[in-house]
Amino acid sequence: MPPRALADRWKSVVHSPAAYQDDSMLHLPFFLRSNEWKLKGDVTSDFEPTGVRDWFGNENRVCMEIGSGFGEWVVGRAIQDPDTNWIAVEKRGNRVLSMLRRIAAAGVQNVKVVSSDVHAYMSHCLPNQSVSGVYVNFPDPWPKKKHTKRRLMRGEFLRLVADKLEHGGTCHTVTDSEDLNEEMKISFNECISDSGHRMFLPELELPWHASSAPENYGTTVYMTLWKAKGRPELYMKWSTGQPQQE
């Protein structure tokens, strides 16, 4: 689709209070109330999102990047891994439009964009045990003490991630913040199911993180920027392996 036509379509979608889905994107209006992400009133029970594999039209494995920004990482991985389906979740409209343009320019068919908050999408549209991998690259560290409760990878959200991952699925994180990395490490380790089982198991040996992401992992704007400044690149990988009783 030509860039102008893509932009016009996106503007008509993003300013609508109704949910919308086509062959390239899902727009899910949401709002925050009482610290809980909720769908807007116009997103009624009549809206039935297309099933994940039906959306892609194949049975390939599905992976998801949370907070895809302008899409440089997920498009790069889609080109590198053409037999993997990729869901890119981003809630900022200008970034979604840039990502759609990047996908169109690259000509990849194995990326679908979700324009919504990830809590709303995963809670209302993503079936349990439907994705093989979840990737979170440079989540906002919210460094001020009064803002730490806004950090994404903790508590109930990690339980939600575990529910959406297939058995043996993996969650990957990359950050330059040592403080955030340690908090996420504790959160993964303390993520317990209602039956008392650990929901995540570390895939890396102690101290459960590596000093850099694996080769061919892909790159983001932040990775390039922080490497140039000599900042750390802390990588973790956790799996939903066979749970063991504590």
Computed Rg: 18 Å
Low-confidence stretches: 31-37, 39-45
Largest sheet: 9 strands, mixed
Number of strands: 11
Mean pLDDT: 85
Strand content: 15-25%
- Helix content range of the residues, please? 25-40%
- What's the helix count? 8
Name the structural class: alpha/beta
Order of helices and strands: HEEEEHEHEHEHEHEHEHE
Describe this structure in words.
By secondary structure, the chain is of the alpha/beta class. Helix content is 31%, strand content 22%. It contains eight helices and eleven strands. It has helices at residues 3-14, 52-56, 72-80, 93-106, 118-124, 155-164, 178-189, 221-228; strands spanning 20-21, 25-27, 30-33, 36-39, 62-66, 85-90, 111-115, 131-137, 165-175, 201-202, 234-239. A nine-stranded mixed sheet has the order 1-2-7-6-5-8-9-11-10, with helices on both faces. Strands 3-4 form a two-stranded antiparallel sheet. Helix 3 links the parallel strand 5 and strand 6 (85-90). The longest helix has 14 residues, at 93-106. It is globular and about 50 Å long.
Fold blueprint:
Layout: H1 3-14, E1 20-21, E2 25-27, E3 30-33, E4 36-39, H2 52-56, E5 62-66, H3 72-80, E6 85-90, H4 93-106, E7 111-115, H5 118-124, E8 131-137, H6 155-164, E9 165-175, H7 178-189, E10 201-202, H8 221-228, E11 234-239
Parallel strand pairs: 2-7, 5-6, 5-8, 6-7, 8-9
Antiparallel strand pairs: 1-2, 3-4, 9-11, 10-11
Helix pairs in contact: 1-4
